[in-house]
Structure formats: C-alpha cells, structure tokens
Write a structure and sequence with these properties.
It is a single chain. By secondary structure, the chain is an all-alpha fold. It has twelve helices and no strands. It is globular.
C-alpha cells in the first residue's frame, strides 16, 4: 500500500512517502469509487450507441450497434490483458472476432454487409485501443506512485477535448497530405478492407475452423498452467511460469513487424543494462521514455505545420 500523503486526501497526485512494496496499491481515498464506474460506464456505452447510430444508422440498425458496443467491452478486456503482458495491444487482431461474428449473422446478400462489418470491427478496435491506452497511463502512474483518481479525472477531461480536436487534426492532415500515399501508406486500412471483403464475400478457407479450435485449446491449457503456477506462490513455480508460453504473447508476435519488436528489444536491453548499474533510477527511466514518446508526438505536429506552409523536408 502507498502511505498517506502529508496533504489533504485526494488533493495530491503523488504521495510524499512512497512504499517499497512492488505489489502496493493506492489508498482507498485515491481510488475511483464503484459508484462512479456504475454510473459512467453505462453512460459512455449509451453515448457510443447514440452517436454511431446517428452517424451510420442508414447502414447499421440499432440492435447491431448495441451488439457491437457490447462486444467492444470484451475486446477492451482482451486489449488490456495483452498490453499488460506484452506492452502491445493487438487491437486489429482482436477486432477481427466481432467482424467474424457479424459476418456469420449478416446475410451475404446484404448490400451494406462490408460497411456493417467494418463498423462492428471499428467499434471493437476503438474500445480495445482506448481501454489499453488508459490502462497504460494508469500503469505508468502506478510506477510513479500517482493517484488513480487524479489520473481518472484527467483522462475524462482529455477524452472530451480529444473527441473535439482529433477530427480537426485529421482534416488538417487530409488537407496537407494525400492519404494514402508513399509517406502514409496506411497498410492497416487495406487489412481492414480485405478482411471485411473476405468475411462477407468469398468466406474463409474451409479448414480454418480447425486451426482456430486447436489454437484456442492450446491457449486455454497454457493459461490454466500459468494461473496455477502463479497461485502456488513459490519462487520455483514463478521461474517455471516464465518458460510457459503465453497465448496472448504468441498472438501479438504474429501481428508485430520487425520495426516494432526490434525497437522494443533495443529499448528493453538499454533499460536492463542501465538499471544494473543504477537500480534506484527506475522512475527516471520511465519518465525519460515517456518524454521521448511525447516529444515525437509533439514534433509530428510541428512537422505537419511546416508541411502546411509548403516547407520541404530536408
């Protein structure tokens, strides 16, 4: 547990006296209450259903919109688990499951079948992405011993402004750059389109169900073994658990390209080497890495502004 801050409860984002327990949790007054979750979660789901139906109601009925939103909850849980284990959220892969479910239930004669399939997958993809991103923020705050409640309020405010600003930034990108182009090839767009066409058109290969069944059973078995070893609590069981493959980690590895995995391997190695010499600087490493990510994102906006002024690249 984190020890109480010297300031008033709930007013401090960072406690003054940190606990050295790696399994610590924040004090109760710094946690988001169950009442807030029970009120805000249904409200957020209702807002999603209403706005999707208002935007795409001519293609997707209200019951299908509600079903896609409920599937987004499942996708969010899977995305959080994957990100927690591998530091990567395979949202495009997770969202293929709702696409498959909708492809089975939507007649192939439906002229809007591809659009409905894309919308269902897009809702689940957005849920998994946003949930995993917010979880990553909370994880970083946990490492820095910040208040989850303070982070939660910041995320709510940021989400409101992000929903307004993001479409504007997209319109600015479209006005400056041609999409897709050599600079922005957008391979994910083609993956989504081809998946929707495959599921609603010619269908999947005839024996794909058997491969999926075998992979699912193998993942269940390895997950049960890992959970059992983790419950034993002994150091020996924990060492054995590290050598049991994770189904989530294996699936993420299928989707990752070398540009992702190599960069993370280099970063992880540099962190490991640095902390061997200075083990007390773990928080410093987290802050530096966060600053590098933030700096790249900010400079991309500078680059966009320069491009809008017709200033050529070096």
């Amino acid at each position: 547990m984190l020890e109480r801050s010297s300031t008033a409860p709930g007013n401090s984002a960072v406690p003054s006296v940190p606990s050295k327990d790696p399994n610590r949790d924040a004090p109760p007054h710094q946690l988001v209450s169950t009442t807030q979750i029970l009120i805000l979660l249904p409200l957020a789901l209702a807002v999603c259903v209403v706005f999707v139906f208002l935007s795409f109601g001519s293609y997707m009925s209200l019951p299908l919109t509600m079903l896609a939103t409920l599937l987004a909850i499942v996708a969010s849980a899977m995305g959080i688990r994957a990100l927690g284990e591998t530091d990567i959220c395979p949202a495009p892969g997770i969202s293929k499951l709702p696409q498959l479910l909708f492809a089975v239930n939507i007649p192939k004669t439906n002229p809007n079948g591809v659009i409905i399939n894309l919308l269902a997958g897009g809702i689940s993809d957005a849920g998994a992405n946003q949930a995993s991103d917010l979880m990553q923020d909370i994880k970083t705050g946990h490492l820095l011993q910040a208040s989850p409640k303070a982070q939660f309020y910041g995320q709510v405010v940021g989400s409101i402004f992000g929903a307004i600003i993001s479409p504007m930034i997209y319109r600015l990108y479209v006005a400056v750059y041609k999409l897709p182009s050599h600079l922005f090839q957008m391979p994910g767009v083609y993956t989504w389109m081809f998946s929707a066409r495959l599921l609603t058109g010619s269908g999947l290969p005839p024996m794909i169900w058997l491969y999926g069944l075998i992979a699912g059973i193998a993942s269940v078995i390895t997950a049960v073994i890992r959970i059992y070893l983790d419950m034993q609590g002994s150091a020996k069981c924990h060492r054995i658990k590290d050598f049991i493959p994770s189904g989530v980690g294996f699936a993420v590895g299928i989707y990752l390209t070398p540009s992702f995995s190599i960069a993370r391997a280099i970063g992880g190695t540099l962190k490991w080497l640095y902390l061997r010499k200075r083990p007390k600087d773990e928080i410093l490493v987290v802050v530096v890495a966060s600053g590098a990510i933030l700096g790249e994102g900010v400079f991309s906006m500078v680059n966009l502004g320069l491009a809008s002024l017709d200033i050529s690249h070096l």
